[in-house]
Write a structure and sequence with these properties.
alpha/beta
């Protein structure tokens, strides 16, 4: 798959690729869930790619019940937008998507948020496990590093400076999972950590006080003291999650410039998706794009819900 692939210029070929990706065992009825029991409806008056389920008699296409449903944008442009967002390591702006696809900024903005919704994990398994290491850290998004240092000394300072905080868990040689949190305290972070990290994991953090009581709930907990310029001590370090933050911040600063509080969680899901499906794990651009396309099902994002805040 590359930018010259016919699926990015021909709507029919795009539909065929999407059907092959989402329905490897035949059409799946979004109304009753029956697999490969549908008849393709042909004729001049029939929509392209229309099927009728032989079980419940309902009609459907590949986009019904997905984030692409009821969109007037051709499927080939949807696939191109998904590909561009999947292979752009630091993200791609809605303005650039709009110029590339030949659509308005408003349309491109909404398309990007729909694709981010598809990239979000459904019922994800816990990170780590026996013999595995999970790193945890938080960062201020859109602010100066000074604000991060202030938050380390006193979590209440985050609210004082009015910055957005991203909290990320990274499994070494594995996946990343990020959250938008209101503040950095043990009360805020503990529910996230115990729900998303296997208790048999080894936990690695910096020396922030909120991690000390939480660390006792895992197989082991080690920390490094950045205040005295200690960054690595044997296997103890948080450099993996710091590397994730470097990508996130380069994307926010260099590509998006500003991310509103209402939409930060969607941008985090986008960066999590690319990191968790990176080349280092044996996943190339084509495989990553197809994985995003498989995630469009069972999700809807209406414009009014997406547009709670100003464009981001």
């Amino acid at each position: 798959m590359n930018l010259t692939d016919p699926i990015f210029t021909d709507a029919d070929k795009a539909r065929a690729h999407l059907e092959k990706t989402r329905w490897p065992h035949g059409p799946v009825c979004p109304h009753c869930g029956v697999v490969n029991e549908a008849t393709s409806i042909k004729g001049r008056s029939a929509r392209a790619g229309l099927y009728q389920c032989n079980a419940c008699r309902e009609q459907f296409t590949i986009t019904v019940g997905t984030v692409f449903e009821r969109s007037k944008v051709p499927l080939n442009k949807w696939l191109l937008a998904t590909y561009l967002m999947s292979f752009s390591k630091k993200g791609i702006s809605a303005h650039q998507i709009g110029r590339t696809l030949g659509v308005t900024y408003k349309t491109a903005w909404f398309m990007c948020h729909r694709i981010r919704e598809a990239m979000a994990e459904n019922n994800p398994a816990p990170l780590g496990g026996e013999g595995k290491i999970v790193e945890a850290d938080e960062t201020v998004v859109g602010g100066k590093e000074r604000n991060k240092r202030l938050s380390k000394r006193n979590p209440k300072n985050i609210g004082a400076v009015g910055k957005q905080v991203a909290f990320t868990l990274v499994e070494r040689n594995g996946r990343a999972r990020s959250f938008h949190v209101a503040n950095v305290t043990g009360k805020t972070l503990r529910p996230i950590m115990v729900a998303n990290v296997d208790r048999k994991s080894a936990l690695m953090t910096d020396d922030a006080g909120q991690y000390r009581p939480i660390g006792k709930e895992f197989a082991s907990h080690e920390s490094v003291n950045h205040g005295i310029e200690e960054y690595v001590r044997g296997a103890a370090h948080s450099n993996t999650v710091e590397g994730f933050f470097s990508l996130l911040k380069r994307g926010i600063i260099g590509t998006f410039h500003h991310v509103s509080e209402a939409h930060l969680k969607r941008y985090l899901a986008e960066f999590d998706f690319r990191y968790s499906h990176r080349v280092g794990l044996g996943i190339n651009d084509t495989m990553r794009t197809d994985e995003a396309l498989r995630g469009i099902g069972g999700k809807r994002l209406m414009y009014r819900r997406a547009d709670k805040a100003c464009y981001a």
